[in-house]
Amino acid sequence: ETPAPPPPNATTTPAPLVCNVWASAVGGACVCDPNRYGNGVSRCDQCPVGATSPRGSTTFQDCDCSEGQGATMLGGVCQCGKNAYGNGAVCTRCPRGTVSPRFSSSLPDCVRPYAFVSVQLGFDGVRPQDLPDTTLVSVMATTLGINSDLVGIADKVLQDVRRGGGSRRLLADRTAVTYNIEAGSASDATSISDKLKEAIANGKLDENLEAAGLPKALVLSDVSVGDGLSVSGG
Prior knowledge:
Blueprint: E1 23-26, E2 29-32, E3 36-37, E4 45-46, E5 72-74, E6 77-79, E7 84-86, E8 91-93, E9 115-124, H1 133-144, E10 151-163, E11 170-183, H2 186-201, H3 204-211, E12 218-219, E13 224-226
Antiparallel strand pairs: 1-2, 3-4, 5-6, 7-8, 9-11, 9-12, 9-13, 10-11
Helix pairs in contact: 1-3
């Protein structure tokens, strides 16, 4: 039998929206809470430890390992990056003068390499926040033709530099950046040191810095091979 049509003045009420316990109704739809993902009704799964996602995320790919500095997703778990250790939610940098492989979990994973090739460069007219570590590392690795995992920024500090003669001296900003470049053997240390000295002398380093949108650098210390603990500029 064909059901009778509703009376002319009758209204139909939509079924109430029933969202997941970890979701809320937004604009007539169920959306998962921050740091969860799913359809908002039958499931809102938790992102892995150390990962975050915005409200309304629907897939695991929305989870980002942003809590642990330098952490990346591997096998569905946040893992700490090179020269750091932790659970992926908190990544602690290895003590200066030590290194660790990616995905290290504890302090004993931080060990001393054979040596570091170190140099301190000065960038006039810029502050530390104007010099991203990733760009500084990438430029140095490209200049030396080595893996960027071997290049570390040990220090990046703001200096006040007086310019001009006599009584008309002005204070200007300079950021001093100390590089520690990991060398696994004596031959590696010699090779890296020689390449760096040559790139400074022939202008290749400055060329690569400018190509990356950074200013040319002043060399504030000699290129040295050592434990990476005692580099200082003049």
